[in-house]
What we know:
Strand order of the largest sheet of chain A: 5-4-18-17-16-6-7
CATH class of chain B: Alpha Beta
Radius of gyration of chain A: 25 Å
Structural class of chain B: alpha+beta
Strand order of the largest sheet of chain B: 2-3-1-4
Distance between the termini of chain A: 45 Å
Largest interface: A-B, 26 and 25 residues
Mean pLDDT of chain B: 85
Number of domains of chain A: 4
Strand content of chain A: 15-25%
CATH superfamily of chain B: Lrp/AsnC effector binding domain/regulation of amino acid metabolism (RAM) domain
Strand content of chain B: 35-45%
Low-confidence stretches of chain B: none
Oligomer: heterodimer
Shape of chain B: globular
Number of strands of chain A: 31
Largest sheet of chain B: 4 strands, antiparallel
Bound molecules: iron/sulfur cluster
Amino acid sequence: xxxxxxxxxxxxxxxxxxxxxxxxxxxxxxxxxxxxxxxxxxxxxxxxxxxxxxxxxxxxxxxxxxxxxxxxxxxxxxxxxxxxxxxxxxxxxxxxxxxxxxxxxxxxxxxxxxxxxxxxxxxxxxxxxxxxxxxxxxxxxxxxxxxxxxxxxxxxxxxxxxxxxxxxxxxxxxxxxxxxxxxxxxxxxxxxxxxxxxxxxxxxxxxxxxxxxxxxxxxxxxxxxxxxxxxxxxxxxxxxxxxxxxxxxxxxxxxxxxxxxxxxxxxxxxxxxxxxxxxxxxxxxxxxxxxxxxxxxxxxxxxxxxxxxxxxxxxxxxxxxxxxxxxxxxxxxxxxxxxxxxxxxxxxxxxxxxxxxxxxxxxxxxxxxxxxxxxxxxxxxxxxxxxxxxxxxxxxxxxxxxxxxxxxxxxxxxxxxxxxxxxxxxxxxxxxxxxxxxxxxxxxxxxxxxxxxxxxxxxxxxxxxxxxxxxxxxxxxxxxxxxxxxxxxxxxxxxxxxxxxxxxxxxxxxxxxxxxxxxxxxxxxxxxxxxxxxxxxxxxxxxxxxxxxxxxxxxxxxxxxxxxxxxxxxxxxxxxxxxxxxxxxxxxxxxxxxxxxxxxxxxxxxxxxxxxxxxxxxxxxxxxxxxxxxxxxxxxxxxxxxxxxxxxxxxxxxxxxxxxxxxxxxxxxxxxxxxxxxxxxxxxxxxxxxxxxxxxxxxxxxxxxxxxxxxxxxxxxxxxxxxxxxxxxxxxxxxxxxxxxxxxxxxxxxxxxxxxxxxxxxxxxxxxxxxxxxx
Amino acid sequence: xxxxxxxxxxxxxxxxxxxxxxxxxxxxxxxxxxxxxxxxxxxxxxxxxxxxxxxxxxxxxxxxxxxxxxxxxxxxxx
Lengths: 775, 78
Ligand code: SF4
């Protein structure tokens, strides 16, 4: 007992030291504490360091996990990873501390007469397979659905897609990356015809300016932000924070520019107006590599069930585009964006100056937007007009939130409309999938079905009668959970949840499956910069915990699809990856072979002739380009990217006399999304024990609210009680409140609106109208 | 049994003085940065009272500019 206590104290002490080192590193990038990290690790044991990616965010830092006697005892940054060069953030350092949480799901639980009964996994999987089959027999294959995650590994996503689309023959598969990345995908596809950023993190070492669009990188992408700060300190690179709220990132930036929610659309157009008006257009680039188009407008916001929209692009020319921009002079836009004419002109000058290199970064601020596809297009417009793209230090860079939003959700394609290569609506893509999967091509349906929000609406309506979720917590993370929680509780739908810890989503499950955590299984993730990272299983998981991929395979076998899943338990990750790799063969998306991925701390695709392609679409770096051209946007048939004419349109719900505040929601550095892991890590939980509502001090004074006072935040959909936070972590503008969504005891998504971008179907969590009262 | 970690910022030019003063205080470990004016201090005390006294002692050092707590834990006594 005494020994255990001592070990625990030593461990906690080490964690306390690591927290301090991490905090120090955020303030002083590159700070050195000699070999302190190593010195503090357990002595005497046979500590073995195993490489892998961090479990948490889309930055995709390389970690080394110290394993002693079969237990994970330490974490350090992987110095060989070019992503983080040995640095980690506070979440990364403490990640392994959640594995042993007391309430870990170690065995399958089946609900019997209202109570969860521990059940052997084999029996639970029988129940899942039988229920799925029975539902399909009774109600058709489109009555079953699967909802996966950007935290699922590449093999897990692949097997889910193969099971749903190839074996069962339904497109009822979507994932939580719909909630964070879908607008980035549609933005890339509409502008370039190919998903994912053209550049890589090495851009940070070359850029003169970093412009962050609604992106609090200091908290959400802390290691990348540290790298930017290092460049700021070392060679005077500048950071400009363009946002709706003052955050840690704004405070560390050279300039913070605030805008009225939703008006980023107008400001982006105003920047383009200025670029054209001042003659800063890179004419040769535009003439040779760009087309101009416009799409439909007034699309609505997807607020009604079964909402459908298809854009109709029409070609326009430069003169049409120029005329359209007349509505977006800095003077006109300043009036409603609350960005001064001077600041708009300043931003335009930074982008327009041919002698500066500029990278634009964004994440949820632009993606979780009812015009998310448009605002992605508009930032691409700026880079295309100036030709600042696909070169070291010059380019637009959409960051991801989840560790494998790119690798799994986007590349494997765990969306209703996607296949591992291409989309279900394309006959050639279906034929390729059918060939590799060895299924009849007619089995893969050509029509997408439910995107995330619509999937849970269908559960609520009773159209979906069986749903299986993995590594995700929709009853905390969906917008308007006030509708979707009662929907999931309905008897009409059988709910299977596979996860590592209990969550509000597993609370409504009929069967809970105990999933392996990250390092308890082998896997692959793909980060924001197209980097695929492999890891080998490092430790055994407790009880009957099992990798999600293997649970899918077991269910597939029980449903009679065994011949399509001929993988072995020991080697299924390798076997699946080798099969999956065939989908991406060629110079445009070739992936490194497994032996290379096992050796390296991640490899960027396209991987061609033993080399990563760091800057796509530039023939200097990208062997997939037509060598006769300097740039080749080969995602489009004519090799030209598209500048889109997209107007400003208001948000679907704006503050009024009854609901006078904007509500903005988001994250904090300590917690990973819905907090199911990080709230079980004592140091993180203690640092940020609960959610809060941030107000501007003037609003607080006007309403007589003091710090810590309980407030009720109410919208037309629901309410949530939280303590007030004034002048603490962040500072919203007047008339705006901010609430982080990590806390399952303070469900702010009961309040949010389930409006989404009509093109990407990604919800907007950043804008709805609320009132604030003392609770 | 509280365990806490702090970032200690020395007064200008007083990093070495602060390090040696901190080293003379019991129940605290000192980890100076090699290349920045910053010191990590980790305290491990028996109870809250001792913890409070220790913090007051550190804060009383003339060579200290600022003491910022990073993390705090309480471990069970037995
Ligand atoms: S920045 Fe992201 S990937 Fe890196 S350590 Fe932190 S959470 Fe992990």
